[in-house]
Amino acid sequence: MSTATPRALAGVRVLDLTRVLAGPWCTQVLADLGAEVIKVERPGSGDDTRGWGPPFLRDAEGNETAESAYYLCANRNKRSLTVDIATLEGQTIIRRLALQSDVLVENFKVGDMARHGLDAATLRAEHPRLVYCSITGFGHHGPHAQRAGYDFAIQGLGGLMSVTGAADGEPQKVGVAVADLFTGMYATVAILAALRHRDATGEGQVIDMALLDAQVAMLANLGSHYLVGGEVPPRQGNAHANIVPYQVFAVADGHLIVAVGNDRQFARLCDVLGNALLASDARFATNAGRVRHRDVLVPMLQAAFVSRDRQAWLTLLEAAGIPCGPVNDIADVFADPQVRARGMVGHVGHPHAGTVPLVASPLKLSATPVELRHAPPWLGQHTDEVLREAGYDDAEIAALHARGAI
């Protein structure tokens, strides 16, 4: 009797023609959930992020490999196939694999796949059950459709930078490429919905994912703030546009976060700070009042916070049930006992490095748990293996190698 862990997406094959972050993030989630993901890369160079370092993974002798930490973050549980899709032989390989797949994900510029005969209309004419997901910067229609999309530019164009950074400073991007990551997650949701529809009706569909769309959607309450209130939300630094106090405060030895979510918590905060009367002040008794009078209230709170160090305040605030937390650096994050208890670092065997540490999936499923099955693949590591499975014999594979198609 098999003891293999059940996988939620077992039997689903994904042909991954993406690179950099949004597409690979999407396909990594699908791979984590048990799908077979074949990552198609350009021969000789592969995914651009392989070279986005240092740092690079080191082999058993301590020498740098050709795999950057950036590449490693988004490509676990996949197999790598190198194909030059600019060649007729390469296009034939992709077409054959697409006809054997459930999902195809690509992030080429609008029109590029059609020039290679690998667009959704062409492939789905032969394989109507195929779920075809295209990820671009701006989508397949609209005045900007032909533009290349980059996370940094999308954060600016999509409004995120206008609300990120100090109120009196310049606009700031977020420290990680969140427009890419938002889009990757939305694409994953769309693919799972399309597979559910395909299983119910027998028909695949086309998914048009745009970084700009995802970034605008993720404006969330601030987008609603403008649409409902007619006001452009300003930058608040580490403060919250609609809740006070909900920000970073300086303390004797650094900074901490205080996130008061309701009036009861504010009253308890005033008790902890030794100023219980502050909670009964008509200006501050309600959140709406605190938002309107934040310029008066926040300096009063800040003056109290500088009297103790961070750990002293965290102990007092936590005991009073007031949401709070430290501002950790990345080393602090991975040393945190809760992060460790949740298993957010995994180790997996690697053909050159012995083992490689990876940030683990946050998905915790009781019946179909995520598995860290394979390290991010070496460039072209599975080319011959995948082609044999697709029906190519050894002589054909050798000829494709000789012609530079793979």
Name the descriptors:
2 domains, 17 helices, alpha/beta, formyl-coa transferase, domain 3, elongated, 406 residues, six-stranded parallel β-sheet, Rossmann fold, three-stranded antiparallel β-sheet
Strand order in the largest sheet:
5-2-1-6-7-8
One letter per element, helices H and strands E, the order comes to EHEEEHEHEHHEHHEHHEEHHHHEHHEEHH
CATH fold assignment of the largest domain: Rossmann fold
CATH class of the largest domain: Alpha Beta
Low-pLDDT segments = none
CATH superfamily of the largest domain: Crotonobetainyl-coa:carnitine coa-transferase, domain 1
Corresponding CATH architecture of the largest domain: 3-Layer(aba) Sandwich
SSE diagram, text form:
Layout: E1 13-17, H1 22-32, E2 36-41, E3 56-58, E4 64-68, H2 69-72, E5 78-82, H3 88-99, E6 103-106, H4 112-115, H5 120-126, E7 131-136, H6 151-157, H7 178-201, E8 206-210, H8 211-217, H9 220-229, E9 246-251, E10 254-259, H10 263-272, H11 287-292, H12 294-305, H13 310-319, E11 324-326, H14 330-335, H15 337-341, E12 345-350, E13 354-359, H16 383-389, H17 394-402
Helix pairs in contact: 1-7, 7-8
